Amino acid sequence: MCLAVPMKLIEVTGEGTGRVDSGGVSTDVSLAMVPDAKVGDYIIIHAGFGIEVLDNEEAQIRIDLFHELAEATAHLEET
Amino acid sequence: MNPADETRTAQVLAREISERCLSCGKPLRFMEVCGTHTMAIAESGIKSLLPDNLQLVSGPGCPVCVTEKIFIDRALETGRRYDACLVTFGDLVRVPGSSGSLAGFRSEGGSVRVLYSPLDAIEIAAKEAPRPVVFLGVGFETTVPTVAATVKVAKSKGIANLFVLPAFKTIHRPLEVLAAKADLHGFLLPGHVSAILGSDCYRYLVSDFGKPGVVGGFEALDILLALRDLVIMTVSDSPAIINDYRRVVRPAGNPTARATMFEVFEEADATWRGLGVIPGSGLKFRPEFAGFDATTHLPVEVPPAKDDPRCLCAAILTGSRTPDKCGLFGRECTPEEPVGPCMVSSEGTCAAYYKYGLAARR
After folding, report:
1. What structural domains and CATH numbers belong to chain B?
2. Does domain A5-78 match CATH 3.40.30.10?
3. Residues contacting B152, CB < 8 A, separation 6+
4. In Å, how far is B199's CA from the nearest CA of chain A?
5. Which end of chain A is more exposed for a tag (fewer CB within 10 A), N or C?
6. pTM higher than 0.80 for the full model?
């Protein structure tokens, strides 16, 4: 029930409301709890509300970490 | 990331988990607190990658599962007695009460509407006025701020026929109860509850109970990473709280969401299926918002509810049993004809075991 998905904020539609998109599917959400969200940010959406803004830098750190692990194994596979 | 790299990363993490568990030799039991993690773990098949001495058990973080049967009875009685329109998240619709479910009530002509967002209840209330519209208030700290924000909007719009029947829960008190259990060695902490509460708020697990906790994301690699970190901390006896979901969870969480939640609600005692009454583990309306409280404005009397004594949901929610140990599982209790809530909820442990065949595999 605490399911939440990241969607991109494409438009601020009013005071505390915005339109978010994921792969062409868009919906209106409340931004009341993410007052600092800007167009272009990925917002974590739960039950019609943005509950947090995705931290791009941290997301990249995670991908880099997983890449490192994958590369280490790929290297072992070759040898 | 491409699929091949994802597979490789999963292999590296799973291998490290296995090696460290095997070198430790002792049985390790971790609890995934959140129902969304339960479902992600089952769906991804992660359990098949874990060594025999590492067991994952599900916790109480499935809101529908920990809601008492009598809550459904109260909701149905409120609908009948006041001809109220009941609005709810979809998970609750098929949960059996003492005399049927919300789905049954609807088939008898009762009004039950499934919402995507609590905000939808405002439009419904405006259309249905003066008929009472009752939101069935189930959920944890992820969901409660959205309900609180909805109540604030309703108040500002002067909507007088919208009510909430509160059965909200908060995670810290039950987590303390579970952390005291000697056979649980670490906790995969709930990702989206932590988005609201922050990763710093779990320090008591370490200071009071000497247990590690990892805030984890919901993708398979996130979960494996979190499990690896739990294993490292447990095996080396160096408990700490690690946040492996930093892209979403900040150390202090979302203070705006918490302020909204506590503007409308305040701490109260709550009854949990499986854990009983836990002081301070629920939420009730503050006096300024008491006008929205269905319990006082639409009072109902219902007899005490009895659970089927054979149903093991209570033990399953506290990690004491697994669904395959329940005599009803897969026979009398299936997703089509559920006996207990753990089989109904899309994130219930029994539903996960049933859907992904985990009982047969064990």
Report:
1. 65-170+254-297 (3.40.50.11740)
2. no
3. B260, B263, B264
4. 14
5. C
6. yes
